Each structure stands twice: as C-alpha cells, then as structure tokens.
Amino acid sequence: MSDARWALIEPVFNAWRARRTGPGTAARVHDLREIVNAILYVNRTGIPWEYLPQDFPPYKTVYDYYAKWEADGITQQVHDLLRDKTRRAHGRSTEPTAAVVDAQSVKTSANVAETSQGIDAGKKSNEITADARPTRHNQGAYLSERGAHYLAVVKKNHPGLFKSVRTLPWRDIAFDHYDRTRAHHCMEIRRLKMAAFRHLDYPDARQALQIVRWRRELGTGKLTIERVYLITSLPPGEATGEQLAT
User: Fold this and answer.
1) Are 73 and 184 part of one and the same domain?
2) Does 142 score more than 70 pLDDT?
3) Of 89, 117, 140, which one is at a domain's C-terminal end?
4) What's residue 239's pLDDT?
5) Per-residue pLDDT for 155 more than 80?
6) How many domains does the chain have?
7) Both 170 and 60 in a single domain?
C-alpha cells in the first residue's frame, strides 16, 4: 500500500488501537500497515491464511486483527470513509439520493459490525432489503425523510400492495420502454410500463411499474414469461423508462 493510500485510512486504525491500549493489554509489536498489507495480499491472491509469505507478520496474528476489525466495524468504517471521499471527488453528495428496495428476506452482510448483524428487523446491510410490511413502510419513510428516492420490488408477501399494483389497467397503458436482445442462444424481449398513482399503500409512492420479460431459448423453443411489479417515489418525468429498466 502506498504512503498516500495509507495516510487516508491510518487514523481509523490508530484510533482503534488506542482504544484497546491500557493496563493489562499486551504490548503492540506489529505495524498496522503491515497487517493491512497482509490482509490485502490474502484478498488479492485468494490463498489460505496459513500460506502467507514469511515477510508478513504471522498469519494467526494477521487473522486475529482481521477478525477483530470485522467484529468492531472497522472494515465498514474504512469502506465508508473511502466511499465518501470518492463521491466527493466526483462532485456527488456523500449520501445516495436513490435506493433499491427488494422484497427478499436475507441476512445482513457479514462485513458489518456484529452488533449490526441479524435477519430482517433493522436491515443494516449495504443493500436495503425487506419483506415484512411494517419494515418496508419504515424504510420507505426513512428514505423519504432524508430526501432520497427508492425503487421497490412488490411481491406477494405484501398482498394488499401487490393486488393494487397488479390490477392496474396495464393493458391500456403504453410502453415506456421496449428492447429486444439476442445473446447466449436466447431471444429476450423486455417491456416496461409506468403509471402515476398517488394512492398506493406505501410512503410517498408516486408511480407503479410493470416489467414483462419474454425469453425464448433458440435451440429448444422454450418460452418463459416473467412479470415484475415495482413502485417508486420518483415523480413522473424524473427518470426515463430506459433508466428504470436497467
């Protein structure tokens, strides 16, 4: 790691070590920069920890630091620090102004602090996901209060909302986006329709979307049709059908 890159993240690791220094703690004999370099080497090469070259600190020591940093949220803190710097360098706000909300119930990322891990509830993962109705409403309200927009997948585990969106007069609505592609021995057609709708049972929902994908395998002729329904807080005209389809 170059001097410039280490200078960006060194204060985070030094502060972490300072909090762990005191009576009854062992003397620190390893350079934190070398520990980080060793972790990056494992990540880059994919080797088992025990195969770390001998010019790095002992692999058990390196892994111990890695495990503590993961548990204490230091890895996520460094990630957030670098992400914010990158966004500012590109003239963007440190906080995103849009988010995608899926309807799948998943465990949170293993890369966040242990105190933030779990299933459902607060959903502290990097990707915003939800399935229970109260949770989804809370997340929609949370994003809206902070000036962010969302694009949420609507599934049958939210029966009232799903029925409201599915039964909109989609046949009478013109396409907002249509594309036809051919790849991997398949022909695929994807079409998107959008409907402004202010009475959806979701905070600040402004539009409903229907995406239909027709996929035909050229070798066998097998046809599959998939329909996906979404809602978004983006007002009409804020994003094109092509942008939302991707």
Assistant:
1) no
2) no
3) 89
4) 77
5) yes
6) 2
7) no
Which of 44, 65, 89 is the C-terminal boundary of a domain? 89
Angle at 53 between CA 49 and CA 54, to 5 degrees: 110
Same domain, 180 and 200: yes
Q: What is the pTM of this model?
A: 0.45
Claim to verify: residue 139 and residue 231 sit in the same structural domain: yes
Could you give the CA distance from residue 71 to residue 233 in angstroms, rounded to a whole number?
35
Of the candidates 194, 203, 98, the residue with the CA atom closest to the CA atom of residue 161 = 203
Same structural domain for residues 231 and 170?
Answer: yes
Tell me which residue range forms the domain holding 217.
Answer: 98-245
Q: How confident is the model at residue 64 (pLDDT cuts 50, 70, 90)?
A: very high
Q: Residue 28: what residue type?
A: R
- 192: tokens are 């998107």
Task: Kindly report which listed range (42-46, 147-151, 165-169, 184-188) carries the lowest average pLDDT score.
Answer: 147-151
Q: How far apart are CA 78 and CA 36, in angstroms?
A: 12
Same structural domain, 226 and 147: yes
